[in-house]
Amino acid sequence: MTLESLLLTGDADVIRILRPSLESLSIDVEICQEARKAVEILVSEKFDAVIVDCDDLPGGLEVLQGLRTTPSNRSSVAFALLNGKRTTTQEAFDMGVNFVLQKPIGTLNAARCFNAALNFMVREQRRYFRHPTKMVVTVAMGEKKLKATSTNISEGGMALLLHEALPRSCAPRLQFTLPETNLTLDVDGELAWADLEGRVGLRFSNLPEKSRELLERWLDQQMKKQLPGSKAKLATSRSEIIQ
Fold first, then answer.
1. What is the fold of 3-128+229-242?
2. Using an 8 Å Cβ cutoff, are 50 and 79 in contact?
3. 0.90 cut: is pTM over it?
């Protein structure tokens, strides 16, 4: 699975420097040069990273200010491009920015910034990443046990195909072994949705820390299989300034 980024700028030099830096990390880049169009895109599409030229593009600052209110991108990794004359670094961080790049931007600075941010992007993608997988799941409700087949799994829950409807108020116990491993998880679930074809969505609740770590590690492995060429580097700070 490829990481996705939106670059909002009309600065040709910025595009020339940032696009290859992002693409070298297997991050697709969608370029937008108008703030109004960017707002429309952010409402309808999900990005792992949003990069905003908030000082030199008309309306850019307003896009950055409203980013955390968009349902799809409120937790995307946000970058502010500053020219040192209008918006301060602290003001950018106060708006929810994770990383700051000061103009003029050099190739080395851009590479350092995106390498530092890569793990955060992968973590954000993993949060909503649903891995399609087929495995047997035991759904226990008291003494009653049903066999189900999973269709996908994420950090927060899983979708199942059942041959019997679940009561709306049920809180089943789920037991399953992650594919190609001997890792068996035994977790509480709660019904999130159901359709008329026997498919249900279950949220994990009260997930033990050890089980969460095992699931996250396994999902990371599945994502990395779909991210060839990634050079993930652990960032040392949630809000790192690149001068």
1. Rossmann fold (3.40.50)
2. yes
3. no
